[in-house]
Task: structure prediction
Amino acid sequence: MTSVDLEQVSRWFGNVVAVNDVTMHLGPGVTGLLGPNGAGKSTLIHMMAGFLAPSAGTATLDGRPLHRDPEIYREIGLVPEREEMYDAISGWDFVLANAKLHKLADPRAAARQAIGTVEMAEAQDRDIRTYSKGMKQRIKMATAIVHEPRVLLLDEPFNGMDPRQRLHLMELLHELGDQGRTILFSSHILEEVEQIAQRIEVMVAGRHAASGDFREIRRLMTQRPHQYTIRSSDDRALASAVIAEPSTSGVELVSDATGGSVVQVQATDFAAFVHALPRVASRNGIRLLEVRPADESLESVFAYLVAR
Result:
């Protein structure tokens, strides 16, 4: 039962704090690391891989410090987000070289198995420079699993993959997780994470914002206050009527760029509000011209989780 543990981990670069006081436990199975770009996911993964030392706190693998311990690489496989490959060699040579670096008993057999697992046998003799983004992702995955590590760290592994490739990698991660391996993969897409991960860890602006299965994370996101900008045939009447609804916590009538007005509403109960709004408008003889969510970006959703 292999585990990776972060205890009050922080990492800063000069005056920039990339990761701030994160405590996290990773055990067997598949865990998704979710957050917008720039949230600190890659920095966190690099500390888990032993490449970066925490500026504060501890990062351990089964109780052993991860940084400056070459032996941990027998236990860890890494797929970095950036292309860290030699373009002038073939995929076969790249995976074989990694097998030899791990001093495997039969490096050629291990390389063949890893390449077959990621379905790259037909392209293994081509130079990596000729590969598509998705193919490069798969050959990186082969190098990460060639020594059958107990821990897999994958940084945005689905980038550049077509639907078939994504489905195959999802199935592979499920299979490896079921074998008892400890797997962490990062993504900024909730739908991508919830299809694979048994547990989700959310990072925002370097901080650990939330933790749980995808149902808990979905619940946190849908329960947050939602803001809407609404144009109607009678904005003043609509504002007066909507403020009386229990699903709203605030209403403001503001001028828009055209010189007209819009109604800005903050809804505390998303599901109740989207059902109540048409009824309120109909009851008061008001036509709804536009209903637009004002804060539906990933950044705003994750910022709400941080504020909790």
About this structure: DSSP finds ten helices and 14 strands in the chain. The mean pLDDT is 89. The radius of gyration is 24 Å. The first strand starts at residue 4 and ends at 13.
